[in-house]
Write a structure and sequence with these properties.
This protein is of the alpha/beta class. The chain is built from six helices and eleven strands. The mean pLDDT is 90.
Length: 250
């Protein structure tokens, strides 16, 4: 079985964000990067599925060639090969363009099962997985917290507002992975050494025009300093008045 884990290179969650002088975007040259948290879960599930059913796992990413360091980590954690769809403007690609490019690459790789993170930890859109499945014409199960898969079908549990739902799906399929599905493994020394010999290919992504254009990025206004309206029970009327008329949260 050909299995793909789509992974995204994102700034680390503790990165100090700086804006370009012309407010056209973020300064990215000095940012530290990592694989998106939910994509690590997707990679782990892809490797677990390979270990259970056999086959091969490809780590697929859209991003700059300099992202090879993070993609090599996927190889160290059990992926058999990796493909980077190289695009230096990857951070400005909207969900539609990203999904189209990934879908084109997935079709060429002749995969039967694709794992993605539920959301990317930089954009938090939760849109690329379902859109990619739509372009492929495949089944899609989003936000999976438990699953079993066979050669041609599987079952998955999804956490919803109404409780845990169990769904059955047929292959090929796109699965977006949520917290609780598994615990991503660490890359051991053996895996790190083996990753150096595994193939990592760079390809030009398919053409896909975006429908959203980033025009301006500005920081949110600074929060006003807090103030003490009084002490004890006598301060309650003043507090309620401030919450209602100043903060307007009541």
């Amino acid at each position: 079985m050909n299995i793909i884990a789509c992974v995204k290179r994102v700034p680390t969650t503790d990165a100090e964000v700086r804006f370009k002088a012309d407010a056209s975007g973020l300064e990215t040259d000095s940012l530290p990067y990592m694989i998106s948290f939910y994509d690590e879960i997707a990679l782990e599930q892809a490797v677990l599925t390979k270990e259970a059913l056999g086959g091969e796992v490809t780590a697929l990413s859209l991003g700059p060639a300099s992202g090879s360091k993070e993609i090599r980590e996927c190889l160290a954690k059990g992926a058999d090969k990796a493909v980077i769809l190289t695009d230096d403007e990857w951070m400005s690609s909207d969900c539609r363009a990203t999904a189209k490019r990934l879908a084109a690459a997935i079709g060429e790789l002749d995969a039967q099962l694709v794992f993605m993170g539920r959301v990317a930890t930089d954009r938090d859109n939760a849109a690329v997985g379902p859109m990619c499945a739509t372009y492929l014409g495949w089944a899609c199960v989003s936000g999976v917290i438990e699953m079993e898969c066979g050669e041609d079908k599987g079952t998955a549990k999804v956490e919803t507002e109404n409780g845990i739902e169990t769904v059955e799906f047929s292959l090929p399929a796109v699965i977006t992975c949520n917290k609780g599905l598994n615990t991503p493994r660490y890359a051991g020394l053996k895996g790190i050494m083996a990753a150096k010999k595994k193939p990592l290919e760079e390809q030009a992504p398919a053409e896909a025009d975006g429908q959203a254009v980033l025009s301006t990025v500005i920081a949110p206004p600074a929060r006003p300093e807090g103030r003490i309206v009084g002490t004890g029970a006598e301060a309650i009327p003043a507090l309620i008045d401030a919450l209602r008329n100043e903060a307007q949260v009541l």
